[in-house]
Design brief:
With 189 residues, this protein is of the alpha+beta class. The chain has 5 helices and 13 strands. The termini are far apart.
C-alpha cells in the first residue's frame, strides 16, 4: 500500500507564485489552498462593510482595505485574504513588496457554507496569534447575524452576537459602529 505525501513548499516560493498568479490562494504551513470566487451576496456584504467603515475612518489614523490585501500570521506562517481588514497607525509589512500586512486591528470575514467551519475554527485560532488584532467579526450571508470576538486587556476573547436588523455593532478598537441595516443594505435573503 502506498502513502501519498503532501508536497510542502517554503513561504518564499508561495509568495513568488502568488505575486504572478491570476487567482488568489492562501498558504498555511507549507500548503497552498486555492480560493474560490465569492458570490454576489458575499461581495455586496463585504462592500457594505468597507464603505461604512471608510466613511467613519476617513479623517482618522485607521484605514480599511478590501479582500485583496494579504495578511500574514507570522508564527505559523499563514498568508490569508480576509474579506475586510482595518489597520491603524503605520502599515507594517513583511518586505519590500509591501503586500503582506502584519498589523491588522480588525478583521471581517463573510461566512459561506464552504468557509464557515474554517473561519470559525483554525482561521480564528491562527488570527489570535496576531498581536495587534483586537476584533474578529464573522458575518452571515443568509440571515441577519453578526458574531463579534473582542480581545480583552487580559488577552482573552469575548464573544457577542447581533441578530436584530435594527441593532448596531460597536467596534471599540477603531471607535466605529456598524448598523446591521448598513451591513445588509440591498441584500436579499
Amino acid at each position: 500500500m502506498s502513502t501519498k505525501h503532501k508536497t510542502l513548499i517554503p513561504p518564499q516560493e508561495y509568495l513568488a507564485l502568488e505575486r504572478k498568479a491570476e487567482t488568489k490562494s492562501e498558504y498555511y504551513a507549507g500548503e497552498v489552498f486555492a480560493l474560490a470566487g465569492a458570490s454576489p451576496r458575499h461581495n455586496l456584504i463585504a462592500g457594505n462593510v468597507l464603505a461604512a467603515l471608510h466613511i467613519q475612518l476617513k479623517n482618522r489614523d485607521c484605514k480599511v482595505y478590501p479582500g485583496d490585501l494579504r495578511v500574514k500570521v507570522p508564527a505559523i506562517p499563514y498568508y490569508t485574504y480576509p474579506d475586510v481588514t482595518v489597520v491603524c497607525g503605520e502599515l507594517k509589512v513583511e518586505d519590500e513588496y509591501q503586500d503582506n500586512v502584519l498589523n491588522p486591528v480588525a478583521i471581517f470575514e463573510v461566512l459561506s457554507s464552504s468557509t464557515e467551519r474554517h473561519d470559525r475554527g483554525s482561521k480564528f485560532e491562527s488570527y489570535r496569534r496576531i498581536e495587534s488584532l483586537r476584533e474578529y467579526i464573522l458575518i452571515a450571508q443568509d440571515s441577519h447575524r453578526v458574531e463579534q470576538y473582542s480581545k480583552q486587556p487580559d488577552e482573552t476573547w469575548v464573544f457577542s452576537e447581533t441578530t436584530d436588523a435594527d441593532d448596531t455593532l460597536k467596534l471599540a478598537c477603531i471607535g466605529c459602529e456598524l448598523s446591521l441595516s448598513d451591513i445588509y443594505s440591498r441584500v436579499d435573503f
